[in-house]
Please model this.
Amino acid sequence: GPYAYPTWWVEGAAGLLPDLWLRNNWEKFSAFAGFTFDDIAVEAIKVNEMFKFQRRMIMGELSPEEENEVPEENFYLGTKDESYDTSNHCCANTANAYIAHLTSYETVWISIPKDAYELGFEGSFIKHVGMTLQEFYDDYNNFMRQGHHDDDPPDGFYPEGDIKDYVDFWQ
Model:
């Protein structure tokens, strides 16, 4: 319906926040005293590695031990990723980080959902991102296929430091 939120946005916006928060705050926990980031880093909070893995999937460049014989087109972000029944959930976090790269993390977590009830998700997306969902899918897939599959994401793709410096959750 008009208030439906696409699976890739719901899962990506929700998953990205704790990943980024823990990546930037893990040292504050006494339970991690004496450990390094690599000691505690679960796959998700190694966001640059997740970005590279998702880029390799979209480019069809998985290594033999990662290979799962699925054509890379299956990993492209598209309308199939709007539904839980058909999404493979592969690029949800990276797609939301890409929205933030184009606009801001405030757009991902505050602006889009704030206007989605009134405008519908796509209407709010168009208002804040400046393109339709299909235009975004095409743009994201093209972006992820550029460069070398082991390139780091562009500078600023993932925020460094306190998320409160990027998003005012209390406005």
Observations:
- The CA atoms of residues 159 and 165 lie 9 Å apart.
